[in-house]
Amino acid sequence: MSLQIAGHEIRHVGVIEDDPGAREGYQYTLEDMDLKPVLEEGPLGRLEDYMAGQAERYEAAICDHHLAPSGYAAFNGARLVAEMSRRKRPAVLCTAWDEANVDEIRSFRRDIPCLLKPRELNPDSFRRALELCIEEFCGHFRPSRFPSRTLVRVEDTDTENAYLVLPGWNPQEVIRLPRRLISPEVHSCLKVGARLHAKVNIGAERQEDLYFDEWEGK
User: Fold this and answer.
1) DSSP string of 79-94?
2) CA 11 → CA 37, 158, 194, distances in Å?
């Protein structure tokens, strides 16, 4: 059996997870949906090689983020999900994440349409996550994901970070953003009081869900 979503037929789903117990849990969820899980036991090499080879066996994927520390893969899950999205192939990042890895995931968040925590995963939530991915591929963004050109005010800086305010999102909240996540072309503009523009999903409810793209300096 397969899922039919807006012209996408999904029969096989890659399961990219370094924990065997978690892989088994994902397997049960997919089998409940009459989908065929493709369990990756690892180790997986470079992302480019994986995408050109093993990843061709499935039409969609579910992926943990923390893959590299255990030696399971030479890449993290956020990077894999983002790469699949750029290729118009639905993939869902399912991971227990916190402030410690917000920056790591945010660098790919523009191309991660849906992020679930393991406790949220069930057949209904996974199907909906796939639908959200495919909707974005077609240019249909939900309000929390829509990229809007917006003002970015620089409150402070240090050698590693810029501290920013988005008046169009929350004028009272300061967002710490590592310089490496900001386009190098505008680094010279990162001065206290400076005003820049970027494409940001200002409909996001939480700071950790914000992404920044297409920076413009003055």
Assistant:
1) HHHHHHHHTT--EEEE
2) 9, 49, 50
Nearest to 35 by CA among 106, 90, 78: 90
Write down how long the chain is.
218
Identify the helix (H) or strand (E) that includes residue 197: strand 195-200
CA distance 83 to 77: 10
Identify any residues that bridge with 157 across adjacent strands, giving them in sequence order. Answer: 162
Q: Who contacts 52 (Cβ-Cβ below 8 Å, separation ≥6)? A: none
Q: DSSP secondary-structure letter at 44?
A: B
H/E stretch holding 163 reads strand 161-166
What count of other Cβ atoms lies within 10 Å of the Cβ of residue 17? Answer: 28
Confirm whether pTM is higher than 0.85: yes
Full pLDDT tens readout for the chain, 218 residues = 788 888 889 999 999 999 999 999 999 999 999 999 999 998 999 999 999 999 999 999 999 999 988 999 999 999 999 999 999 999 999 987 666 578 889 999 999 999 999 999 999 999 999 999 999 999 999 999 999 999 999 999 999 999 999 999 999 999 999 999 999 999 999 999 999 999 999 999 999 899 999 999 97
Nearest residue to 23 (alpha-carbon basis) of 9, 10, 42? 42
The helix (run of H) or strand (run of E) holding residue 213 is: strand 212-216
Output the CA–CA distances (angstroms, integers) from residue 191 to 152, 159, 195, 211, in the order listed.
12, 12, 9, 21
- Residue 48's SS3 state is helix
